[in-house]
Amino acid sequence: MKRKCLFLSGLLFGLLTIQTQAQGQFEVGITGGYNKNYVHTSAGARTFAKYDSRSGFVVGIPVRYTFNNWLAVQAEPSYIQKNYRYERSNFFDGIYQNNTNSYVQLPLMAHFSFGGDKLKGFFNAGGYGAYWVNGRIKGTMANIFDAGDPIPDDKPIDNYFQLNKPYNYNEKYAFDSRRDRRMEFGLLAGAGVEYLLSQRFRFFVEGRYYYSLTDQQKDYMVNQVPRYNDTYVIQAGCLFNLRKLFHHAAPAETAK
After folding, report:
1. What's the CATH number for 2-16+25-134+184-245?
2. pLDDT for position 49
3. Residue 5 phi/psi, 5° resolution?
4. How far apart (Å, rounded) are the C-alpha atoms in residues 106 and 108?
5. Nearest to 108 by CA among 241, 42, 10
6. CA gap 62, 107 in Å, rounded
7. What is the pLDDT of residue 220?
């Protein structure tokens, strides 16, 4: 954990201490979009079980400082969902759980751009830290205290819910301080295009990938199988050049 924190701190310090002769520009804006989260793990310990991706959304406030026409640094405080689904098949068909997880996230990145004065391509690279704010679980499991209808002796049992009636639930996730790791750190990379309008508004579309380096769980058991978030984002937004947006030309000198 300390090594990851030092990595992110060093990245930010290095970017902020870059010196250029060009006058810097400060921009702030808003962005939002769609994401799909995958849990990188193994369900091999359970028969006929798997983890699937689920969709979510992200909204953020990008803040960018531009050093010259190709280099900038950017921070982007965000609210992001990192959802996934766990389900079982075959004899256990019908058992599932949808996990909806919300994070407050802070990406820090170097922004490299290329192209003309108005239309540019760009790519971002850096790291991020996130905090798991809350979660919700919804699913179905077997209710072992409520057996299903009796099964004739000559009828094969081909589904778990023939033995036990399903129990449906939809509730807030209860965090366990011994088990859940709520801080997450990782790397990011992104690419997209942006268009500068009237030297004040910068519209952009970007695809971005977040790669978690942090297990969702603490080391609370022997032979634990780790779970890492892999999140793909497509987003669009607009940046505003504050200095030019609120700049007013000086009044002309009164003729004598």
Report:
1. 2.40.160.20
2. 87
3. -65, -40
4. 7
5. 10
6. 9
7. 83
